[in-house]
Amino acid sequence: MVAGDIDGIPGDADIYLLGEVHDDAAHHLRQAEIVERLSPTTLVFEMLPDTFQLDATKRPVGDANALDAALGWSSGGWPDFALYHPIFLAAPDADIVGMAPPEDEVRQAIEDGAAQVFGADAAQFGLTVALDPKEQSNREKLQDEVHCNALPAELLPGFVEAQRFRDARFAHATLKALQTHGSPVAVITGNGHVVQWGMPRALELAAPEVKTVAVSQLYGEAKADGADVVLRSLAPPQSSDPCASFQSK
Predict the structure, then answer these.
(1) C-alpha–C-alpha distance, residues 100 and 226, integer Å
(2) Predicted TM-score of the model (pTM)
């Protein structure tokens, strides 16, 4: 078991945002432990499209291959389903929904801005307000880092808009799940979406009456990222460096 104590996670929230590094099996085991304690009505996944819904009574629980097929997981380009299966096992009675917008809309947000693509409710999720210049700069630097410092500088503002669009759409889908199925709702997503300026801000703006707890999973002494709860692992998994191909050119 990785280092970190989940006992400090409040038990009275409506929505739990459970962050991860996508290819870290230990992070998913910890998410499963949290989910088991919460007994959520719904599991909401970044890895599934926002059109996806699977009623708990209709989903295979113990058969990983059958559930993989029902979700269309292996065709989605995400890490192996075996890493995520413990989360589903931890909440056998939870409905499953997705929250990812179509990628063509995300690409459009890069060009036209998050508010334009989001549409009528953009203001509700804070998309019509420009970011503070310092935050804008910090978020552009972060986008540069996560894209291996390979993006032209003129593209960075658009990638920030794409992230704002994703966070708002994720929040919209999560609130719909809460309204439809009741609380608590557990959201499985990358650490980048549970930081305070991500989904938590969008949820707070759109539904201030809803209590949200954001949990991130970081390595070692990495700087805390603004989530409500930070769980730490001793070391990242041993995997190939995704930026190696850029650095070698």
Answers:
(1) 23
(2) 0.93
